[in-house]
Amino acid sequence: NNNLVALLPSIKTNGPALKDPGDDDPARQYKLLLFDENMDREIWNSPDGLHFSREGKPSIVSPRQPDGSRLRLPDPNVWFDAHQLLFDTQDPNPDRRYKAYGQMSSEHDGWHIRKGGLLYGPDPWTWTRSEYNPIIDPDDGDEFQIHFISVLPYKGLYIMLYEFGWLEQSVYMAEGGQRQ
C-alpha cells in the first residue's frame, strides 16, 4: 500500500522519485516529483520511499504570460516533462547538485517534437534551465522524437539512455500532406 500514484481531485499523476542524500530531515529522505492540479510539478516527501506527503510548494513551474495564462508553443520553455531526478555528487558546483532530465517540446512542420532537456539547481525547488537545452535534439540526427532521458554519472562521465521515435509520414499524413 503506497501512494506513488497520487489521486488528486482533478488528476491522477505519477513521476520520478529520488532518494535524497542532500536532505538531513528523516521525513524527507525520498522525493517524488508529481504534477499538481495546475500541471506544474511539486515535490512530495517520504521517510521510507513508499508513503509520500504532499508538500504543496511548486517545484517546476511552467512560465506564464503577463496576464497569467500559460505560454504556448512554439516557445521552448512552455513545457518540461521530468523523467529523472538526480542528486549529482560528480558535479563540483553545488548550484548544480540536483538535476532533472526530461522532455521539452517545440513545433516543427506542424508537429510537436520532443527534445531532451536539463534543469539543475542547488535543491529540488530552485531550478535553472540549462543554457545547452535541448541537450539532445532529434533535428541533429535521424530521430523524429526523443523520449525518457535517463543519465547515469560514471567515473566523471555522464552516460545518457533515451528512447527515440521515428514517425512514418505516410502513416500520419492524409492525402495532400494534411495531418490526420
Low-confidence stretches: none
- End-to-end Cα distance: 42 Å
Secondary-structure element order, as H and E? EEEEEEEEEEEEH
| Oligomer type | single chain
Q: Tell me the major beta sheet.
A: 4 strands, antiparallel
What is the alpha-carbon Rg in Å?
Answer: 18 Å
Per DSSP, the total helix count is 1
What report would you give on this structure?
- Helices cover 2% and strands 47% of the residues.
- It has 180 residues and is mostly beta strands.
- It has a 4-stranded antiparallel β-sheet with strand order 3-4-5-6, with no helix packed on it. A 4-stranded antiparallel β-sheet has the order 7-8-9-10, with no helix packed on it. It has a two-stranded antiparallel ribbon with strand order 1-2.
- The chain starts with 5 loop residues before the first strand and ends in an 8-residue tail after the last helix.
Tell me the layout of helices and strands.
Blueprint: E1 6-8, E2 11-13, E3 17-19, E4 30-35, E5 41-46, E6 53-60, E7 80-87, E8 98-108, E9 111-123, E10 126-129, E11 145-154, E12 157-165, H1 169-172
Antiparallel strand pairs: 1-2, 3-4, 4-5, 5-6, 7-8, 8-9, 9-10, 11-12
Using brief descriptors, characterize the structure shown.
180 residues, mainly beta, 4-stranded antiparallel β-sheet, globular
